[in-house]
């Protein structure tokens, strides 16, 4: 699987929001994108998901232009966007056009993966915020997309739940081999989870920097206290602040 963005431009009413965005991701990659408000992060994710057309340039998945939504791209929003009157299992299985037995098997597997199989019959209103986001991620993964798109999925959670979800997401990524592109405003989160971090400048959004994250081993919370992590976080924070001011 290869996701390629070539010189992507997005305009609204003639005003450029994104200008000349380039990106390439391969199978099993995990890329985090950061930038200040107004840098176009969520707009870019919407275009990759096929919810917004590009003004110029191209977005291709395995050489095929993206022209609309498709099951090969799973999208998770900050709110989770679950169906309130469907059970957890029904939410995860929604949209799976499979024989009943295979659909049930897949729903069971992904609910087990996110640790929510005992709550398969619960409604979203009976879940915590973190549990609802686990369901949303399971639903996106159940379609077994080529790339999972995450739009600030933990932004509305409290600090402890957010940290738990970060560890959870990294484990799910390792278990499933999913390809993940995650938009976040949280630099610490980006460095903890991403194999690469892309920094967008603003006004209009451009790729200002792309940094590898050479941190070996599991991405546990204790990693945040190491000198290597702190140095990387400071580097990305300086870039975000600098490009928000119009350059570094």
Q: How many domains?
A: 1
Mean pLDDT: 92
How widely separated are the two ends?
34 Å
The largest pleated sheet is described as: 6 strands, mixed
Strand content of the residues, in percent?
25-35%
Which structural class do the helices and strands define? alpha/beta
In CATH, what is the class? Alpha Beta
Overall morphology: globular
CATH architectural category: 3-Layer(aba) Sandwich
Q: Order of strands in the sheet with the most strands?
A: 6-7-8-3-9-10
Task: Enumerate the spans where pLDDT stays under 50 for 5 or more consecutive residues.
Answer: none
At CATH level 3, the topology is Rossmann fold
Number of helices: 7
Notable traits:
248 residues; Rossmann fold; globular; 7 helices; 4-stranded antiparallel β-sheet; alpha/beta; ABC transporter ATP-binding protein; 6-stranded mixed β-sheet
């Amino acid at each position: 699987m290869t996701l390629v963005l070539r010189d992507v431009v997005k305009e609204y009413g003639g005003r450029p929001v994104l200008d000349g965005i380039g990106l390439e991701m391969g199978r099993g990659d995990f890329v985090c994108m950061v930038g200040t408000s107004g840098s176009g992060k969520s707009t870019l994710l919407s275009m990759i998901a096929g919810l917004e057309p590009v003004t110029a340039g191209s977005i291709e998945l395995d050489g095929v232009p993206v022209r609309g939504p498709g099951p090969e791209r799973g999208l998770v929003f900050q709110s989770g966007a679950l169906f309130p009157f469907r059970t957890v299992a029904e939410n995860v299985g929604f949209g799976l056009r499979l024989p009943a037995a295979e659909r049930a098997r897949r729903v069971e597997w992904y609910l087990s993966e996110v640790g929510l199989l005992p709550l398969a019959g619960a409604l979203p209103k009976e879940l915590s915020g973190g549990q609802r986001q686990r369901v949303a991620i399971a639903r996106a993964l159940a379609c077994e997309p080529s790339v999972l798109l995450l739009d600030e999925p933990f932004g509305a959670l409290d600090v402890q739940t957010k940290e738990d979800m970060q560890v959870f997401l990294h484990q799910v990524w390792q278990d499933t081999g999913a390809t993940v592109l995650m938009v976040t405003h949280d630099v610490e989160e980006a460095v903890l989870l991403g194999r690469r971090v892309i920094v967008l400048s603003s006004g209009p959004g451009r790729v200002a920097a792309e940094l590898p994250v050479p941190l070996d081993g599991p991405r546990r919370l204790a990693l945040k206290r190491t000198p290597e992590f702190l140095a990387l976080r400071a580097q990305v924070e300086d870039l975000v602040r600098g490009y928000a001011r119009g350059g570094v």
